[in-house]
Each structure stands twice: as structure tokens, then as C-alpha cells.
């Protein structure tokens, strides 16, 4: 039995025979199922499945497995992918002045927690702003942007995405709103993080606004980017209790910590093919 494992991720209209067809195909391809999760959304009538498997005798490539699976995918009208789990995805990190999420993701990548290769770090501030950060050889690109140059800057950004072979874009507290056009190009592969006060406390200093209102919970939400600002399909969320003793600075500090861990979990789930889009929602297979 080979040591390399693969992950199959799929969604399709629900009907009898899907699981049987998938398991039969993998058996006939000489593969062994290591883990399988599935979900039937009775509201939408769609079926979702994630399967981890490896080969018993042969040593197939992902391309060969995809070719064998293609007839099953077509028969059931599936949206599906097959990928080697050991494959390192190329991720672009976008950042503005707040660098806590960038530093955290770089650290988790270095210690092996995130199975990714940093294709580029892109910022709308110059490199000197991040002089204290060890980018560990990741290419840095300064793409300044103003309201007047936004479309030109996004054209440069898109060329960079294509030129670096970027598969996933992460807005690691990148304080710029992507245009509808760029958001559409990055559908399902661009992840953002924001505080979970929205739409309650919009604009500048949301934690200060929340403190003035005496909130008892703060949190963060990681989601896919869409043309609807901060309303894309949610991948992960977390919260922390707040008391009357907490200052605005305490809220900011605790909020940064929540943002870091929520964004890291969301990216890890995406990289491990645990997330499947389901309209305006997601199915996230955990465990």
C-alpha cells in the first residue's frame, strides 16, 4: 500500500447511488478509503462528500485518478476535485498596516501547521513598514493604491496572481475592498477576516464603538470574498466574552488574537479541502 494519500471533494444534486458509485470506482482503481464524510442538505437537495484514500499496489498520479473519476463526475453532475494531500498550495498574502495575521500565518507555515508555499506577500504599504518581519524568502511586492488608481492596482495584482501560480489569496487584514470584477475572478479561493460586529459597528475603530455600547461578546469571521462586502460564505468564526472591566485597548488586543486563530483555521480547512461552497453558505468537514 502506498504512503501517499489523496483527497476527493465533491458536491452534486442528491440522488441514490452516489456513495456506491464513488466507492466502487475507488475500489476498481485499486484504492483504499481511509476516511469518508458526507452531508445531504435537505433544504437545497445537494449532496456533499469528502473522501481520503490511497492506492493499494499501484502509484497513480492525481491526473490519472482524475481521468478515471471523470465519467462518474459527469454522470452525477458533480463539482469535484482530486488532489494529493501532500501537495503544497501556493498562497498569496495581502496585508495593510495591521500585521498580526500576516506574522501568524508565516509562523504557522514555517512550523508545518499550514501546508502551503507563500507565492508572494503583497502590501499597499512599502517594505519598510514590515522591516521587523522575517518573510523567510517570500517575495514582497509593494502595490500602493488610491481611489484614483484602484483599477490599475488591481490589474497589477491580478497579473501577479497569474504570474506566481497563486491558488489561494488571503486578505490578512488587507484594508482595501476588492472590486466586483476581481472578487468574481477569485470566487471560492479568496479568504478574508473581519471582526464579527458587522453590520453593528461599521467604519473606524469598531472595538471602541463596541466598548461604548458595552458589548459582552467580541468575535471574528473568516469568509470567502464576494462582491457583497463582508457577506461572503462563512468558513469559521469564534468569540470571546468581554466584561465591564475591559478597556477599548483590551478589546483590540483580544480581537487581534481571535482574528489570528480564526483566519488560520479557515485557511487550514481550505488547504485540506474540507470546505465546499453551498450557495451563500459552506459545508466544512471537520475532525
From TrEMBL:
Protein keywords: Hydrolase, One-carbon metabolism, Purine biosynthesis
Q: What does this protein do?
A: Catalyzes the hydrolysis of 10-formyltetrahydrofolate (formyl-FH4) to formate and tetrahydrofolate (FH4).
- What sections of the protein cross the membrane? none
Could you say which protein family the record assigns here? Belongs to the PurU family.
Gene Ontology BP annotations = 'de novo' IMP biosynthetic process; one-carbon metabolic process
Indicate the segments forming the ACT domain, all copies: 7-87
Task: Cite the InterPro entries for this sequence.
Answer: ACT-like_dom_sf (IPR045865), ACT_dom (IPR002912), Formyl-FH4-Hydrolase_C (IPR041729), Formyl_transf_N (IPR002376), Formyl_transf_N_sf (IPR036477), PurU (IPR004810), PurU_ACT (IPR044074)
EC no. given is 3.5.1.10
Gene expressing this chain: purU
The protein's matches in CDD domains, at most eight in alphabetical order, are given as:
ACT_F4HF-DF (cd04875), FMT_core_Formyl-FH4-Hydrolase_C (cd08648)
Instruction: Give the pathway annotation.
Output: Purine metabolism; IMP biosynthesis via de novo pathway; formate from 10-formyl-5,6,7,8-tetrahydrofolate: step 1/1
Q: What molecular functions are annotated in GO for this chain?
A: formyltetrahydrofolate deformylase activity
Task: Supply the name of the protein.
Answer: Formyltetrahydrofolate deformylase
PROSITE patterns documented for this protein: ACT
Active site residues of this protein: 230
Question: Known Pfam families for this protein?
Answer: ACT, Formyl_trans_N
Would you say which domain of life the source belongs to?
Answer: Bacteria
Give the reactions, separated by semicolons, that this protein catalyses. Answer: (6R)-10-formyltetrahydrofolate + H2O = (6S)-5,6,7,8-tetrahydrofolate + formate + H(+)
Question: Which HAMAP family does the UniProt record give?
Answer: PurU
* Native organism: Alsobacter metallidurans
Amino acid at each position: 500500500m502506498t504512503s501517499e494519500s489523496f483527497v476527493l471533494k465533491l458536491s452534486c444534486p442528491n440522488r441514490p447511488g452516489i456513495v456506491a458509485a464513488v466507492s466502487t470506482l475507488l475500489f476498481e482503481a485499486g484504492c483504499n478509503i481511509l476516511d469518508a464524510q458526507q452531508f445531504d442538505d435537505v433544504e437545497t437537495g445537494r449532496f456533499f462528500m469528502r473522501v481520503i484514500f490511497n492506492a493499494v499496489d499501484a502509484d497513480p498520479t492525481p491526473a490519472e485518478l482524475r481521468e478515471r473519476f471523470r465519467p462518474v463526475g459527469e454522470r452525477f453532475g458533480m463539482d469535484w476535485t482530486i488532489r494529493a494531500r501532500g501537495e503544497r498550495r501556493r498562497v498569496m498574502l495581502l496585508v495593510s498596516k495591521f500585521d498580526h495575521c500576516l506574522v501568524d500565518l508565516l509562523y504557522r507555515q514555517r512550523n508545518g501547521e499550514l501546508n502551503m508555499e507563500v507565492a508572494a506577500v503583497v502590501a499597499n504599504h512599502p517594505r519598510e513598514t514590515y522591516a521587523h518581519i522575517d518573510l523567510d524568502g517570500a517575495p514582497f511586492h509593494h502595490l500602493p493604491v488610491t481611489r484614483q488608481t484602484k483599477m490599475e492596482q488591481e490589474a497589477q495584482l491580478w497579473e501577479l496572481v497569474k504570474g506566481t501560480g497563486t491558488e489561494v489569496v488571503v486578505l490578512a487584514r488587507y484594508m482595501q475592498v476588492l472590486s466586483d470584477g476581481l472578487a468574481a475572478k477569485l470566487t471560492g479561493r479568496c479568504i478574508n477576516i473581519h471582526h464579527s460586529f458587522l453590520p453593528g459597528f461599521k467604519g473606524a475603530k469598531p472595538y471602541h464603538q463596541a466598548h461604548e455600547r458595552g458589548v459582552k461578546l467580541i468575535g471574528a469571521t473568516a469568509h470567502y470574498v464576494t462582491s457583497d462586502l463582508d457577506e461572503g460564505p462563512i468558513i469559521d468564526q469564534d468569540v470571546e466574552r468581554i466584561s465591564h472591566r475591559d478597556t477599548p485597548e483590551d478589546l483590540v488586543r483580544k480581537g487581534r488574537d481571535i482574528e489570528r486563530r480564526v483566519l488560520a483555521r479557515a485557511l487550514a480547512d481550505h488547504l485540506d479541502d474540507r470546505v465546499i461552497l453551498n450557495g451563500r453558505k459552506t459545508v466544512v468537514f471537520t475532525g
